[in-house]
Amino acid sequence: MESQITIDETLNQRRSVEVCRAFETFDEFIKYRNGNLKNCDLSGAIDLDVDFSKYATDDTTKLPIREDANLSCKVLKAYKNGEFVVCQFWSNEDKKIVKQQVHRFRYFFDFVAFLKGDLSGSDLLFCTGMKNLSNIDEINLSDVKMTSEICEKLNVQYRSYDYDEKLIGEFPAVEKNEEETALVLQSSRRIVSYERSMFSADLSNMFLWESNRISYISDLHLMHRIKNAGCKSKEDVIYTMKKIIDSILADSSSLTLIGGDVSSEFSIFELFVKMLRKLAGLRSRNFVFVLGNHEIWNFPGLPMDEIADKYRTVLKENGMFLLHNDLFYRNESDDIGIIPYDELIQSDNKALLEKLRCARLVILGGLGFSGYNEDFNANDGVYRATVDRKTEIQESKKFEQLYDKLTNVLAKKNTVIFTHTPKKDWCADADFHNDFVYVSGHTHRNIFFDDGVKRIYADNQIGYRNESPHLKSFLMDGEYDYFGDYEDGIYEITSQEYQDFSRGKNISMTFNRQVNILYMLKKNGYYCFIHKTKTGSLSLLNGGALKKLDKKDINYYYDNMELMIASIETPLNNFIAYQERIAEQIRKIGGSGWIHGCIIDIDYYNHVYVNPVDMTIRSYWASDIINKLVYPTVPALLKAECPDLYANYLKLIKGEKSNLLAGEQIKNEIALLPQEYLETDIYKASREIKKMQKLNSNVLTTWYDIVPEKNKLPEK
User: Fold this and answer.
1) Is residue 418 domain-resident?
2) If phi over 0 gives left and psi between -120 and 50 gives alpha, with beta otherwise, what is residue 301?
3) CA 647 to chain centre
4) 3-class state of residue 321 by DSSP
5) What is one Pfam family matched by this protein (predicted)?
6) Could you tell me if residue 361 is inside a domain?
7) Burial, 41: exposed, middle or buried (Cβ in 10 Å; 0-12, 13-18, 19+)?
């Protein structure tokens, strides 16, 4: 079979080649290779008179071209990534490529000169500069890929593209929604949660943000994009499509949701998917689709499941996912899976919980349909002739029943309910579950609601008229609770289960200890892990570290968990709030503001230490944990070590009566000098605070003598 050659594959191969070692003679080379020429390209070795039959070769071996060889040559010409490229391939009688060569040109006329004016068959679709040519008398442009506009300007023939205009349609109510909410669609939302997590979470969690950001878009209506762009040829369609896909990929996260109404023409949907996969290339990007009502228009007479299978096949061939009453999950090691509808219905909730035990993200998706919408439904031609009102109601009830069955299972997971139609269209209960994120489209009424409890994202429905499609994003927690389905109580667990729990909470640790008995204590959503030795002594676990406890009664610690948590949590919350206020002032002047333990970073070397006992502030410069210069005030540190931030600080305090960074005024000039400080006690206190802060993950990792005072941190 003849090798299929593409310019993209060839350029990628060429860029991946690295020269590791050079040889002056073939004898040196073949000796080094032990007579093995597999995976060797010798096609450029001219006048090499060698009997290659003596050496090991296979299909990957490219031998030198001999003068008497009967070879055919294929030439690919294109404009790619801002340069003109010519790829030459020589094949033997067996259709195997024996030599290839790539030539790159920065300027068009060098490209033309090399080809001696023969640009026939070139792919110049994205070379917009072609429109500036005034004289093409000496250039052969037959069968060149260019937009119809440039072809007409240069008087070059092109094949026209005809599409079925019956597959392009609008609904007046939808058009009105689109017009009324155009500003919502065009607006971008800053994801504040990222900034907060970046400056107040553990460092190991900072890098989870990208994998927890989910991008979304719906109602692309590519047939309208094609019509609005005035596409006359297939090249015009590809050109228009690429601009849209480039915009999507520029904003895409590791997971992008595409929420239906991509195209009412199946072939255009297929082209979009193939181009999206090709342009995404080697980037780690996953795309999850649901169908919209427009995807159904093209298939009158076909059952809904068969229609879904057609789209599922195209997406699967391109490494993408379709959810049609199915469940998508991504587990703790970023493995991805789909639980299909039949399995979801037939499995009991206990089995599903076990399967999703380590799921960091769950998406329940489908079209949803509009069975509960009495104003805009199948009777209005929403699905054309493919789905009638009776079938629409049945399909909505099908998804509603699935949603109701899974609600208790998914409430304990990081769950997205991803449908084309809004919840009120497919569910009798229009209220939103506080533990779910809802993403939808269909109406073109762009709405967004997120009060920290209820989360609805239906604000990126591109619609019929908008010609600047872009993605929007939201954040998901990314944690999972390995013991989430356990009732309160004391359990014996394995070392592996403890590690699985910690991974789910994004707690970084090393735990290679031999254990005797390992207890998990769960109470009101909080956890505590205690190890019991053969002699009966107990130790509290903090990651992989053990801290010996005074008492040997495990029930004592279970009974007092609530009191211990309360004694830590109340003053700790006050302390954290105080730190956040200081960190906010640091960020206002251009500093980092990242909180870890008792320490708030100004930058890599300069820090603020907040004493958890008396809430006093100390500022210091540190090259490492030993060598530190302590300044009497934060402004003194900024003036000496961070002049740019100090200038910003002076601007900030103008007109302010007080500022947390200012501290007390010190008049003694000697006291203003920095003092060398070599002790490491601040880090010890900071470590204790970090242990307490693990309560943010609902894990109790330290045990203090419980004291009644509410305004102080517990003492050991």
Assistant:
1) yes
2) left
3) 38
4) strand
5) Metallophos
6) yes
7) middle
Looking at the fold, whether 469 and 499 belong to one and the same domain comes out as no
Q: Say how far apart CA 580 and CA 26 lie, in whole Å.
A: 69
Question: What pLDDT, on a 0 to 100 scale, did the predictor assign at position 199?
Answer: 31
φ, ψ for residue 400, nearest 5 deg: -60, -45
Residues 564, 524: Cα–Cα separation, whole Å: 13
The position carrying tokens 């020589």 is 90
Furthest C-alpha separation in the chain: 98
Pairing relationship of beta strands 72-80 and 83-91 according to DSSP bridges: antiparallel
Residue whose pair of structure tokens reads 């006359």 in the numeric block: 232
Q: Are 549 and 557 in contact (CB under 8 A)?
A: yes
Determine the average pLDDT of the residues in 451-476: 88
How many residues would you count in the chain? 716
Distance CA 437, CA 460 (A): 15
Q: Is the model's pLDDT at 175 over the cut of 90?
A: yes
Distance, in Å, from the CA atom of 209 to the CA atom of 221, rounded to the nearest integer, reads 31
Residues 502 and 353 in one domain: no
Provide the domain limits for residue 547: 489-553
Q: Rounded to the nearest 10 degrees, how much is the dihedral formed by the CA atoms of 188, 193, 195, 196?
A: 150
Q: What are phi and psi of 105, to 5 degrees?
A: -135, 135
DSSP 338-356: EE-HHHHHHS-HHHHHHHT
Round to whole Å and give the CA distance between 188 and 200: 24
What one-character DSSP code corresponds to residue 4? P
Residue 2 lies in a domain: no
Region of 533 (left: φ > 0; alpha: ψ -120 to 50; beta: rest) is beta
* Torsion, CA 336, CA 342, CA 344, CA 348, rounded to 10: -130
- Provide the domain count of the chain: 4
Collapse the DSSP code of 305 into the 3-class scheme (helix H, G, I; strand E, B; otherwise coil) and give the result: helix
Relative to beta strand 286-289, strand 255-258 is parallel
pTM: 0.72
Query: How many Cβ atoms are within 10 Å of 284's Cβ, its own excluded?
Result: 10
Pairwise CA distance, residues 198 & 73, whole Å: 56
Task: Say if residue 521's pLDDT is above 90.
Answer: yes
DSSP 324: S
Burial grade of 326 (CB within 10 A; 0-12, 13-18, 19 or more): buried
Report d(CA 683, CA 139) in Å as an integer.
Answer: 73
